[in-house]
Fold this sequence. Notes:
The complex is a heterodimer. Chain A is low in regular secondary structure. Chain A has no helices and no strands. Chain B has helices at 15-27, 31-52, 64-70, 85-95, 103-109, 124-132, 144-159, 163-174, 179-190, 199-206, 210-217, 220-226, 234-241. The radius of gyration of chain B is 19 Å and the shape is globular. Chain B starts with 14 loop residues before the first helix and ends with a helix. The mean pLDDT of chain B is 92. At the A-B interface, loops of A face helix 1 and helix 2 of B.
Amino acid sequence: DADVPRWDAFFKCNKL
Amino acid sequence: AAQPSKKTVASRVPFADLCSTLERIQTCKSRPEKTKHFKDFLDSWRKFHDALHQKEKDVTDSFYPAMRLILPQLERERMAYGIKETMLAKLYIELLNLPKDGKDAAKLLNYRMPAGSRGDTGDFAMIAYFVLKPRSPKQGRLTIEQVNEHLDAIANNNAAKNKGLLKKSLLQLITQSTALEQKWLIRMIIKDLKLGVSQQTIFSVFHPDAAELHNVTTDLEKVCRQLHDPSVSLSDVSIMLF
Lengths: 16, 242
């Protein structure tokens, strides 16, 4: 999974 | 031969991120702000999708696993859950060991009664949220794909009229979720998200032709797959079809 993209690189979710 | 790894976006997106997006959509006032929050989530999903599937052909993955949770009233694939507020109230009272004649149990069972100043009369999910908040895990760990799998299990157990397994699959879902996630899960199960945004608006942000293709097909998965790329127009798709 090393080169599999990560979701948190695409979506910044500032905690509520 | 080893099965190709079925990489899906939904198996890598935390359900918590969808819930925080829904929370922002619901709490902000103006329509442009509401649609912006939805568009931010959708754009991130599409970019991640392109990166995850960049070398693949005939990709069937799409935004559908999330869209079916955002528009639960359009669900056609999964059967009914057979769960209403009263059943959820009784399940929570049992699960949380709430005293039957206690305040919190009464709040859940009498959720339609006007009480408190929060203006949550009749909003079972909101009332449950405040009861659950001190008693739920602080960190959820389910992905959108896992939430859909649990909802499939609930619907299948309901169809099989297996109340025991239905309760068990519902417990597996809620015990791994935060109070905020459970608030949105309840709304998805009851099929009323109270977002303050119409289905048409959600469709128009997703793709200009989405509402029309859904009207023709009433198939949410087909809409999400065929119009996954916002630059593809319905006429292109129909040419491909025929």
